[in-house]
Amino acid sequence: MNASSAVWARIRNVTTAGNLLGAILTFFYFRFIDQSAQNRPVHWREIAFSVVAFGVLAAVGYAISRRWSRPVLQYQAREGMSTSGPPVSEREASVARRRALLVPYAVAGITALGWVFAGMIWGVLWPWLAGILEVTTALRTIFGITIVAGSVATAFCFLAVESEWRHALPALFPRGDVSAVPGAPRLPVRIRLLGIFLLISVIPLAILGVLAYTRALALVGADAPTAAATVDSLRALTVFVLAVGILAAAGLAIFAAHSVADPLQQLREAMAAVGRGQLDRTCPVVATDEIGAVTEGFNHMLEGLREREAIRETFGQYVSREIRDEILAGRVSFDGQLEEVSILFADLRNFTPWVEQTAPREVVRDLNGYFTEMDAAVRGQRGLVLQFIGDEIEAVFGAPLRAPDHADRAVAAAVEMRRRLNDLNVRRAQAGKPPLQNGIGIHSGTVLAGNIGSAERSTYALVGDAVNLASRIQGLNKELGTDILLSEETRRRLTRTVALEALPAVRVKGKSAEVSVHRLV
What we know:
By secondary structure, this protein is α+β, with helices and mostly antiparallel strands. It folds into two domains: 172 residues, no CATH class; 194 residues, Alpha-Beta Plaits. The protein is 64% helix and 11% strand. The chain has 14 helices and eight strands. Strands 1, 2, 3, 4, 5, 6, 7 and 8 form an eight-stranded mixed beta sheet that branches. It is rod-shaped. The chain starts with a helix and ends with a strand.
């Protein structure tokens, strides 16, 4: 038996139990409380009529409930059980989801209607057919069947079905969007509690009132022994009614407590999980009251947190995680300002011939593997890769996060890039691919750093002569046959000892004076 069938089976069981409870209460009421309403001898025709009437009521109630719940059953069969067949249309889904929220109300309504007809059948129809119809007796019979037994049975069925149906709602509303269903019932918690309070207080008082009234009538004109026996029976019945009333009140109170406490407990556990960083779960919405609205709002908030976390993780793919966290915390300014930084440019050698000889998909795959290794080296020194320009990388150290040792970090990143490229070439050789070579240039100086772009799209960029010079130094690797060069300005800012070889001053494009450079040994 699947989950939905099990829920419907339990609903049938609890409704049967609720109506059986009403029948027992009816028997008790007319056997001990209001004996004068049913004090005539029972004829076999009345028994036969009762059996037929009960069968008709049960059959009609089952047919109505089955027909009414058919859209929900079909929706569950097609969506929840992967049954083959045509897909559920939007209109069918809308009807099924709306009726799913009405299941406890529909069951309670059908139950109440059945007890109303039962009161009319046994209070009016049968006495009329038997020729013994009396207005007073009919009203008292209707009161005992419909008001006393029917109200208890209806309340029990509503609360029990609602409790069972909460196990099926999360499957019908996986996103918990019950508020999006038009015409969905809203039963506030205060109304629920007030109704239960009135039920457990009014019904016992009404029964005690009728009991006292009927026994008072029995005392009129009674002799002493009969009066004493009547008073004794009244005392025993009063204790019994009080005991049954207390048990019924406790049962209804337990139902009410669970209907409020269980969703709150689930919400508390979900909030605790979110507090531990578990954003991959949701809290099931099992009611349309205030608690359900709070739970639905919590799920919407959780969805927003997941989106924010996805943006945060995506942002972390463009900058280092440390820089990302500083930016999101608001401790980094992107307004244009002068910064002392070290700029690193890295460019692949013989890129054009390689592209001409290699399939486009393989070029993209190999470039991504190369950029991944180089980017990891930059991130490892808390640098920021500003952009990938074709086969070239532009990175900065010292902005947007200030670092006094930005020159040391840039040089350390270059050394790591050299090591990672060697390891990558070993793997490429094993795959039968040619090795990759690059040239790296580093220069330190003052730049204007900030957000640059249009009103719709901007990027964090560096502007200044230092950027151009770093790019020119990188280009010198081709002429000098080196792989890592750094300027004299970068060398002067180094605080760590590295093996450098001074090269003759050279003239670069855009500079009137010669530039002193050093090769990283």
